[in-house]
Amino acid sequence: MLAELAGGQADRTWDKRIRQLIRPDLLILDAFAMRQLSASQTDDLYELVSERQGRSLIITSNRAPSDRYPLFPIPVVAESLLDRLINASHQVITNGSQLSSAVRSARAVKTAAKR
């Protein structure tokens, strides 16, 4: 999604692309904050979250909210962005093994059983 918005900066279609992401009743950001973001990615994400206020947004992440701050290069933008996400949210925090690990283990068992 952020790469799509970056492409919009390059070809001057950013406004159209951001509107397409703002429009849906529900937007899902999977694997949020997996790696450090650039300043332009941070700005794009801030703009998206700000414009979507009042609309549903589901975010999945393997990081605790407090671990996300260092991933944003501009602290004041990080604070504002994460504040909007955290304070206006219902959080579901799960503990235990990752689903992807469980799926891999189940596949390994099935493969071993076939041998």
Word description of this protein:
The protein is mainly alpha-helical and 115 residues long. 53% of the residues lie in helices and 7% in strands. It contains five helices and two strands, in the order H-H-E-H-E-H-H. Strands 1-2 form a two-stranded parallel sheet. Helix 1 runs antiparallel to helix 2 and helix 3 packs parallel to helix 4. The radius of gyration is 17 Å and the shape is globular.
SSE topology string: HHEHEHH
- Helix share of residues? 40-55%
Overall spatial form: globular
Instruction: Report how far apart the termini are.
Output: 41 Å
Order of strands in the sheet with most strands = 1-2
What structural class do helix, strand and pairing data support?
mainly alpha
Number of helices: 5
Beta-strand content: 5-15%
| SS elements, strand count | 2
Low-confidence stretches: none
Question: Main beta sheet: strand number and arrangement?
Answer: 2 strands, parallel
Question: Which value, in Å, is the CA radius of gyration?
Answer: 17 Å
Indicate the mean pLDDT: 86
Quaternary state of this entry equals single chain
What attributes does this structure have?
two-stranded parallel ribbon; mainly alpha; single chain; globular; 115 residues
State the gist of this model.
With 115 residues, the protein is mainly alpha-helical. Helices cover 53% and strands 7% of the residues.
Give the topology.
Layout lengths: L1 H10 L2 H9 L3 E4 L9 H13 L4 E4 L15 H13 L11 H16 L1
Parallel strand pairs: 1-2
Helix pairs in contact: 1-2, 1-3, 3-4
